[in-house]
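chain below, 180 aa
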Amino acid sequence: MNPAWGSVAVDVRHPQWRRAVLDRAARALAHTDGLLLDTLDGSDPPGTRALLGALRARWPHVTLIANRGFTLLPELASLVDGVLIEAFSTTHTPVPALHPPDGLAYTAHWLGELRRHGLPVTALDYADTPALAAAAHARAAACGLTTFVTDRALSRPTDLSAPTPGGAVPLPGGQPCART
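prediction:
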């Protein structure tokens, strides 16, 4: 559970939950060609992998993008088409801020693991100032990623702080991740 988002824990193995997810996916896929599978890091990796397997089996040609899902590796690589690392460089809780060094190391580690498994990766970050947005963009560029920077409510229709070519801003503390 995450009270900051109003989310609840579910039993991903429960037949009614599986049916609800597959029904919702079918409704969405009637109007689009892919799904973003939000917040896949949960307490039941085998159950989540099984649910992803059911989605992939039912819709083998749609684009499935996982939000995180690190605990599902290495099998995740055969189940999705890419991964979004939400909060790659910044956090929104309690207020938007750059991750501390251990947080930057954490996302850099998982970026390396996802790439090792051949998964395309995109970043999503949160910022409430142009300087924080620039730092998120700079780190993403240093890591060879594209990123979208928005507010916690995901209410910005475009990333107004996206740098222009050649406009990278150095991130304090040096390179936070190595390109692999």
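Confidence is low (pLDDT under 50) at residues 164-176. The first strand starts at residue 34 and ends at 37.
thats it, cya
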